[in-house]
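[agent] plan:
  1. take the single chain provided in the ticket
  2. run structure prediction with default settings
  3. attach structure tokens to the ticket
  4. add a short note for the reviewer (M.T.)
[agent] executing step 1
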Amino acid sequence: MKMRIFIITLTFSMLSIFSMSAHASYRDAFQREFIDKPWAGAPIVEEGVCIECHISSKMNPDYLKIPQEWKMSIHYKNRVSCHDCHGGDPSDAAVSCGTPHSGFVGTPKYKDVPNMCGKCHLGILERYQTSGHGRALKASGAGPNCVTCHGSHRIQKANIDIINEVRCTKCHTYQRAKAMKQALFLTEKKIGEIESTIDDLKRQGVDVSGPEKALFRTSASFRTVFHSVNVDLVKEKSSSTMSELSKIESDIVALIKELGFRRNFSAFLFILFVAFGVVYYMYSKE
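[agent] step 2 finished; step 3 output follows
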């Protein structure tokens, strides 16, 4: 009888451990995904007035494609909307565009594009202004600006493929750009590998917010350097960035090990629970 009481008590204790563990896991996930990140699950903002005008029959045909181009851009993915660049009030047609007090800017002048983009991309603007590209634009008004390489509305995520012979030789020879691309290659490859690992862990429900933020800061800082169009500086920054990426990679490996330990421990508890259940069943049959 004492043995049965002992086994029953132990069984319920194990069940309680599992219940608390499951509850804690759910609570942590809820805290991480919805309380700590209030924007989680929020829909991408649709610019009502802007979209309505740009798909209407009265719109200039050259501008009808803008909404679809925007929806294929990294800006759309990151919830950067029309008014973030162009100003105006997307909720009110009366003040959305064409009125002085709305702050609306339609198509900026070619020479003003860098300052428009630089409202958000401050580090890149600083590098660009002191580069050969920036100096050429300032001197002649015809040097390459942001849209020359990145486009205007269908802006893609920064990647090494933007540097290519077809694009670069529109203005100059490819040798210098090629040397810079070679200097960027290994670092960009490592950034891509870490991004892929982080995405895999996120799909498994692992909190990788720390490494993710560190990678964003590191890659953003690294990618500003290319806009200096300085091969030696790019090589120097590539070397220091690789050291920072190694640290981020080490942090991710530690997370993976911790995840493996938790899974193994959970499996151990489950097996132990089943074993005690079997023992209890056998004793209860006596």
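[agent] step 4 note for reviewer: The two ends are 11 Å apart (CA to CA).
[agent] ticket updated
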